């Protein structure tokens, strides 16, 4: 019998609340699973901004939930544009406040993050065990990232319980808190052990997910292998290696309804693989918008992402003086580290008309850069999956990427052989260094000078399919496998 009822536990979801790729996955995967006729429901904290942006909600349950001192209310709404139910965890003391989902307005972690996501995970446990009076018992609870790690650990303690799948979207964010926190969280004492939540004297929420889940997944096959090594394992590589028979990688899909240059309402000029000649109008619009020299012949490099060490903006900045010895322009869209922002501002001031940046979050500009740039640069030091390179393929904007994680799984390097075979879609470099990045960009720029070869590369990229349909089938199979493992285990 197929796994039908699934509770999807996430701390962000597009378009309601987003800090990164998890939000995209949390909207797209449930939709794709629903299309496979599964009954999937989503659990999300009732952040103030979410409550403000959705319409009327219905209260469907109230229950006590340690360590929350007030009863928690469960509010029901729907994922916009769908019939998928979202259950919002309304605990005003924890979620009804100005600021981001994890950071306060000062840019620092909320001091009570451990309490906040313990309450969230307790609610997931309550619903997983059908103890909220909803008469809906999931067969599988799918938790994501450290914010849902405790839910897996808490569920594991029930003799009869739903199967648990834990998905790692980024291993570097672990939900680590001082040991003293443990007592405040009112968690079962036996969870505090070397084989449980304890991590070198601290409490680790992500470890709860990794140690106790029936199955673990991550968002690309390559990253699944990488996180079992000291270089990418963030200190959890031994545990992950130990559990490697339960660890799989499934590539995230792109939502091609939102990211399709033929139908994109946010771009200046729509186009498809057969009307690539229309794409340059987007470049002109972008150059004008950003105050760059308007020139169709100059290759335009785009970058979008969180300004974080992970994303390799510093590698690009180090390479910039040499890169700009040749005719090339650069546009950056990002938000995050103040220091990187400052360095980028300096680059913009040093190279007026050639380098531009927008700091902040802008869905419209992200689309316009994907459509208007010639080259999309993603020099991430590590990249669990990465979405922008997948979008850029669909927009005929040739990706230049570091060979890591999902970047390695989605871009085919242009070599003599792949060009001959017609499978090349971009340019890959092996070492995360400015020199290697420059060498790959040089190869890309040389190809750009040959319009026919370039057009072919863009065309092949546009044909690639990284939609959710095939990934959803893989998840449905994984749900099946996870449930079988959970059934096979001995209760206790
Ligand atoms: P991560 O989850 O590590 O941030 P991904 O590439 O998986 O990286 O997903 C990032 C998502 O966030 C993409 O949809 C990307 O377009 C979007 N994004 C990141 N930064 C910005 C920004 N400043 N403005 C608009 N969209 C952004």
Q: What are its keywords?
A:
19 helices; Rossmann fold; binds adenosine-5'-diphosphate; 492 residues; six-stranded parallel beta sheet
Gist of the model:
Helices cover 38% and strands 18% of the residues. It contains 19 helices and 18 strands.
Give the distinct bound molecules: adenosine-5'-diphosphate
Within CATH, the superfamily of the largest domain carries the name Glycogen Phosphorylase B
CATH class of the largest domain: Alpha Beta
Instruction: Tell me the total number of β-strands.
Output: 18
CATH topology of the largest domain: Rossmann fold
Mean of all residue-level pLDDT scores = 96
Helix content: 25-40%
Please compute the radius of gyration using only Cα atoms. 23 Å
Supply the number of structural domains: 2
In CATH, the architecture of the largest domain is 3-Layer(aba) Sandwich
Query: What is the helix tally?
Result: 19
Please indicate the percent range of residues in DSSP E strands (runs of 2 or more).
15-25%
Biggest beta sheet attributes? 9 strands, mixed
Poorly predicted sequence stretches spanning 5 or more consecutive residues: none
Q: Calculate the terminal CA-CA distance, rounded to whole Å.
A: 24 Å
C-alpha geometry: globular
| Spatial order of the strands forming the largest sheet | 3-4-5-2-1-6-7-11-12
User: Which structural class fits the helix and strand makeup?
Assistant: alpha/beta
């Amino acid at each position: 019998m197929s796994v039908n009822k699934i509770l999807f536990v996430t701390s962000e979801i597009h378009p309601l609340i987003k800090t990164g790729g998890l939000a995209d996955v949390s909207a797209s995967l449930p939709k794709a699973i629903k299309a496979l006729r599964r009954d999937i429901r989503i659990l999300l904290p009732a952040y103030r901004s979410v409550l403000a942006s959705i319409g009327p909600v219905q209260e469907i349950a109230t229950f006590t939930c340690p360590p929350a001192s007030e009863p928690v209310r469960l509010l029901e709404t729907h994922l916009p544009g769908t019939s998928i139910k979202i259950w919002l965890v309304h605990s005003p003391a924890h979620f009804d406040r100005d600021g981001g989902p994890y950071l306060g307005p000062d840019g620092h972690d909320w001091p009570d993050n451990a309490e906040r996501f313990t309450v969230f995970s307790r609610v997931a446990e309550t619903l997983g065990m059908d103890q909220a009076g909803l008469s809906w018992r999931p067969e599988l609870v799918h938790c994501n990232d450290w914010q849902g790690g405790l839910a897996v650990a808490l569920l594991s303690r029930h003799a009869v319980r739903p199967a648990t799948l834990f998905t790692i979207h980024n291993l570097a964010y672990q939900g680590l808190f001082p040991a003293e926190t443990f007592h405040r969280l009112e968690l079962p004492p036996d969870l505090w052990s070397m084989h449980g939540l304890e991590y070198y004297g601290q409490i680790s929420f992500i470890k709860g997910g990794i140690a106790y889940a029936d199955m673990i997944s991550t968002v690309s096959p390559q990253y699944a292998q990488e996180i079992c090594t000291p270089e990418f394992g963030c200190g959890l590589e031994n545990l992950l290696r130990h559990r490697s028979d339960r660890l799989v990688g499934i590539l995230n899909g792109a939502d091609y309804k939102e990211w399709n240059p033929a139908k994109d309402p946010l771009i200046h000029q729509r186009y498809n693989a057969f009307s690539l000649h229309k794409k340059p109008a987007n470049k002109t619009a972008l150059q004008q918008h950003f105050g760059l020299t308007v020139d169709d012949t100059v290759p335009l490099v785009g970058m979008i992402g969180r300004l974080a060490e992970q994303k390799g903006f510093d590698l690009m900045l180090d390479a910039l003086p040499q890169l700009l010895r040749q005719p090339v322009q650069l546009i950056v869209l990002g938000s995050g580290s103040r220091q990187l922002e400052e360095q980028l501002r300096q680059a913009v001031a040093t190279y007026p008309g050639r380098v531009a940046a927008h700091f902040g979050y802008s869905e419209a500009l992200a689309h316009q850069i994907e459509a208007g740039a010639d080259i999309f640069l993603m020099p991430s030091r590590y990249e669990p999956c990465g979405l922008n390179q997948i979008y850029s393929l669909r927009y005929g904007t040739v990706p230049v990427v570091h060979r890591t994680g999902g970047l390695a799984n989605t871009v085919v390097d242009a070599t003599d052989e792949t060009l001959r075979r017609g499978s090349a879609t971009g340019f890959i470099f092996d070492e995360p260094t400015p020199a290697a990045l420059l060498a790959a960009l040089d190869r890309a720029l040389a190809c750009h000078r040959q319009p026919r070869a370039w057009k072919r590369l863009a065309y092949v990229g546009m044909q690639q399919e990284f939609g959710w349909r095939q990934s959803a089938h893989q998840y449905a199979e994984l749900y099946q496998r996870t449930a079988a493992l959970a059934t096979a285990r001995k209760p206790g």
